Structure prediction request, 87 residues.
Amino acid sequence: MKSVVCVSPINIALVKYWGKTDSENIIPANDSFSITVSKSALCSRTEIKLVPESSEIKLLLNNKPATVTSRILKVIKMIRGKAPLEM
Prediction:
């Protein structure tokens, strides 16, 4: 099973936008102001393993099972469309 690992710095919102112009695609109505913490000091790590469409989709956050929402399923569908499985 192939996997991809991404490491990203943490971004902290100092002034958060209020409201959305598009709730489905989560497009903010106005700007925000934030800082990004050094990746060497604090970061998030995400690993994605592609599985056949017939397989159960599992989501782990901090190694604990989490709910797979419709928004997450939308992202999974987009990833599958761009990275077809080579079994």
